[in-house]
TrEMBL record:
Binding note for cofactor: Binds 1 FMN per subunit.
Protein function: Catalyzes two sequential steps in the biosynthesis of coenzyme A. In the first step cysteine is conjugated to 4'-phosphopantothenate to form 4-phosphopantothenoylcysteine. In the second step the latter compound is decarboxylated to form 4'-phosphopantotheine. Catalyzes two steps in the biosynthesis of coenzyme A. In the first step cysteine is conjugated to 4'-phosphopantothenate to form 4-phosphopantothenoylcysteine, in the latter compound is decarboxylated to form 4'-phosphopantotheine.
Domain of life per record: Bacteria
Family: In the N-terminal section; belongs to the HFCD (homo-oligomeric flavin containing Cys decarboxylase) superfamily. In the C-terminal section; belongs to the PPC synthetase family.
Keyword line: Decarboxylase, Flavoprotein, FMN, Ligase, Lyase, Magnesium, Metal-binding, Multifunctional enzyme
Its EC number(s): 4.1.1.36, 6.3.2.5
Binding site for CTP: 103, 113, 147, 161, 165
Location of region: Phosphopantothenate--cysteine ligase: 15-225
Cofactors, names only: Mg(2+); FMN
Annotated DNA/pantothenate metabolism flavoprotein C-terminal domain residues: 10-216
Keyword Flavoprotein annotated: yes
Name of the gene: coaBC
Entry protein name: Coenzyme A biosynthesis bifunctional protein CoaBC
Molecular function terms, GO-annotated: phosphopantothenate--cysteine ligase activity; phosphopantothenoylcysteine decarboxylase activity
Parent-record interval covered: 176 to 400 of 406
Amino acid sequence: ESYFSQHLLLRGRKVLITAGGTRERLDPVRYLGNDSSGKMGFALAEAAVQMGAEVTLIAAASSLPVPAGVHLVRVESAQEMYGQVMQHFDQTDYVFKAAAVADYRPVVREMKKRKKGSERWVIELERTTDILETIGKQKQHQFVVGFAAETEALEHYAMDKLRRKNCDLVVANDVSQEGAGFNSDTNIVSIYGEEGCVLSLPMMSKLEVARQLLKLAMIRKGDQG
Ligand code: CTP
Ligand code: CA
């Protein structure tokens, strides 16, 4: 194979990636967030651009620089991310849902900064829409990859998410392991398909994980490049 065919395997393909941690507002100055750094999703965006793809990155909170050549859509909440994913979903070939999406949001969002007063503040939360589950139900030609960050029973939860959300692959990592955490530059992942674990990778940079994952996705989709 020539240099170019190896490096531009995803030429003409549209890749949609979500990254970062969503924020659910309590008031104009406060929110509920999570520890996602966005590193895995941004690495995927960078790797996909290098492979010649047209990349849309829907990014919630993350302070990382945006890789050159990526079409960036900034969002804050799970609901905004949901809206943007649905807008782009029809035209995409691959979806990678690396974002850490809030499972719950405050029922009430106050429009003015809440003043200190009472001894207790009880916050009521309601479920957000599960974006991956929604696109899993609607998918046609799209190849859909979910992510699962777990602290126990990796295989069990990964397979459960794969089936429940109708994903083509689930990328699972044990976030309690050294070198696989939320803000780490490296990751240790196991990738699951309908038949079980299809690839276990040793510790490597998130960019290298991204490259391996993109190639695996192409093979599983039957995409000849
Ligand atoms: N996800 C999503 N929308 C949500 C919650 C999660 O699209 N509202 C996606 C994530 O982006 C990820 C996958 O679903 O690709 C798995 O997320 P995870 O939090 O591990 O799974 P949950 O189904 O939320 O289960 P739990 O948090 O209880 O483990
Ligand atoms: Ca969750």
